[in-house]
Amino acid sequence: MLQTLAARWSGGAPLGPTLRWAVGVVSTYGAGLPLAAWCMKRVPAVPGSRSRPALRRGELAEYAAALLGLMYGANLMTLTVQAALGGTGGGETGLSTYPAALVVIQTVILAPLAEETLFRGLMLRRLLPFGERPAVALSALCFALAHGSVDQVLYALAGGAVLGYAAVRTGRLWPCVLLHALANAAALVLGQLGSGTELAVVLALLLLGCAAAVHLWRSHPLAASGGWPADFWRQGGMPLALLYALVRMALG
Predict the structure, then answer these.
(1) 238-251 vs 132-146: helix axis angle to the nearest 10?
(2) Strand segments (E) across 175-220
(3) Terminus of the chain with fewer CB atoms < 10 Å: N or C?
(4) What is the mean pLDDT of residues 91-110?
């Protein structure tokens, strides 16, 4: 709607990249996410713990390794499936048409702050009555569907799982924001490397990330389910949200 109004305001002329970026940022972070946050706040949340465990030395580095490794492992799986089905994937995205400085602002600053507040700060705390594992799994699934892209579903699902785990284990939101910003910055940097170098870095991250994830899980597994929400998909407009995500992915 905002893009249509902006086009009408400009007399039907094509919008420049900076204006298109501004319209996208305003519609997402100024309208869509605040509305979603308002809706979530109408559901009671689990109170935050006053006695949060101190972060161990090197703990953030372990989360970062697990996050990058599992995300790029999921991305390799997506590319493999696409290649097997005869697809290409990795085409030009809307972000790639924007000025580099605006891309950095959106992906490294705005997206981590807004998305972590919404998915790990608000949604996760409202799913915790179902248990830590369902809360992390369901918030990661919603995070993945919200990306609205087949290319990013597994990538975002893996990232959302690690970020949810970090939120539950630390009881803090700022590590999730920092880790999310790191993952997005890494994606920008890797995209500038040659294909051979990028593949070598991704494989190294995958091996390191799997080892870090196994160590974290063995050291601090999440609590078992407190009762899986069998009627989750019938609650709060979830069928409509799922349908919207699937249609958006189908339309590319």
Answers:
(1) 40
(2) none
(3) N
(4) 82
- Helix and strand numbers (H, E) in the chain are 12, 0
pLDDT digits (tens, 9 = 90+) for 125-136: 998 888 899 899
**φ and ψ at residue 131, rounded to 5 degrees:** 115, 155
First to last CA, the chain: 18
CA distances from 244 to 80, 127, 146, 251 (A): 26, 22, 9, 11
What confidence category does residue 12 fall into, taking pLDDT thresholds of 50, 70 and 90? low
Residue 21: how many CA atoms within 13 Å on its side-chain side?
A: 18
Long-range contacts of 210-217 (CB under 8 A, 24+ apart): 210/69, 210/70, 210/73, 211/65, 212/62, 212/63, 212/65, 212/66, 212/69, 213/66, 213/69, 213/70, 213/162, 215/62, 216/62, 216/63, 216/66, 216/165, 216/169
Q: Which two tokens stand for residue 50?
A: 């006053």
Question: Residues of the chain with pLDDT > 90: what percent?
Answer: 46
CA angle, 140 then 144 then 146, to 5°:
115
